[in-house]
């Protein structure tokens, strides 16, 4: 039954991701027809600046999610219930602080950044409202974390699917009705409101069941000390992954001609979307892994199946991309070709296991592979930067060899870690 539940969650997560992938080009098409070039630039600036939340959070949400799930499946004991109650309060407090920091950094830095350009667009009010909505959406995150931790993953994925679909429809309609930059604010507000209402209804029932009645600020310091080192390791993994996918394109932009940079960055973005879908499939199973951690053998079997499915899906997606390129479809005419494209695909394929295994390891309350992810990410960034500087493909091929070397070390480390857990269980 747990396997069927996991498959259902993975299916809904895939559909939710598919909605985002399909709706992206449609929204861009509508934007290009209805927005002026200045409005279009501001649109992308809004969301680029909003990405600072990922840097501020830096994986702490996943740490708290797994810690909550760990104590939730042990709440039949007095100690487990007290721990769970404390971490629920800490999660709300943590994201309240995070949302406040996020709002001020986003608003003041973003305002200064946008004002540095001469733009004949009324952006100030939409920008302020966008920052307010971003602040409120950050406050919703704890609700999503709790739903996931309380083994309500299928409900959560359905709510997120409905929210994503609503956002796309409302955004397209408001753009067509000439709401301009206010379209972003309206669509974000409605989609987040729907997500909040669904989540709070489901969560309220769950909180009443486990009878969480501790004061809001109880044991906050103790909880922070409990997860401090864990959050730091998750931060290291997150920054490493963030650097791999975001600093390499910046390096390409800095060192190479504009035409090459444009092709590389478009190709990299497409490869990243394939990787993102596999990561979503794996992350949708994280609290399932945590629940199964009481029976480690079943947990590792489950992860092995998901890992194989993710890798096969990634390989299939990249193969389909190459096939489309072979027939020279105009949609991908602006991407890289030839041997360099194959090198990039192999780099992404060999990089994926680092992230999948690292995400899985957290279900055992450990960030055992953060340094492996760091070494792989930074090595690729350095090698790619050197390759861009000298404009030589030989360096990019070398990155595959380096990834395989680190992957070999990590795989042996993973087997030792797995065997140690199975022996002691």
TrEMBL record:
User: Which sequence ranges form a coiled-coil region, renumbered to this chain?
Assistant: none
Q: Does the keyword Membrane apply?
A: yes
Q: Reply yes or no: does the keyword Nuclease apply.
A: no
- Membrane-spanning ranges: 7-30, 42-64, 84-105, 125-147, 159-177, 183-204, 230-256, 276-294, 306-327, 339-357, 369-389, 395-411
For this UniProt record, give its keywords in alphabetical order, as a comma-separated list.
Membrane, Transmembrane, Transmembrane helix
- The name this protein carries in UniProt is Polysaccharide biosynthesis protein
Q: What organism does the UniProt record list as the source?
A: Vibrio parahaemolyticus
